[in-house]
Fold this protein.
Amino acid sequence: MFMIREKLLSALAHEFRVRIPQFKMDSPDYQMILYAQRDLETWLRIKWDAGTPYAVYRRLERYLLGDYKRRRDFRIFLSVWLERWLEKWRERVKILPEMPKVPPKYAELLKKAKKLYREMDHAYELKEMVIRKLIEQGEICMTGFIAENMIVNEIAKRLRRWGGDLKAPTIDPLDILNSLIPRIKRLPKEKGPLLFLKVGVYL
């Protein structure tokens, strides 16, 4: 699996350099390759209905170590996929020199919401379902981060209604998912960032 992952990272690095001449491997730019690799792994896992990252890389092995035709076909696919990923990066990710400030009361709500999310039953399954819904609507960039942000913000909204009480009624993951689905379905018609990052790359 390690060798296949390294080959995938190398292929992604090549595609980045083709599209972004100023791209530097020995700089914070490299973080983008890691983001793209993680997103591609997630996207393939959902599309192939593979249970684990290991299953994804076992299947990728056929393309990255296969005959010339399979390697060529994968390069073509990767080129198209990364082009779309970069479009989504520019659309959905906002790069900032400093993270935006939020009002202290809301920051406290978010802190409590994150705690509830980490401790809730079936948190992993909820995140997986939100990621799947995002991918179904054409989102392929930073889906894991976006899914987590959407879940935490939805919990924070409920905490606000409950007066910020951590002992509020038990949060039902299915209820959270059902609340997020309409928002996710509107995303193809909406432009603008869904994630804010402080990193050393500006595209």
The helical segments are 2-19, 30-47, 53-64, 68-92, 104-119, 123-136, 143-161, 173-186.
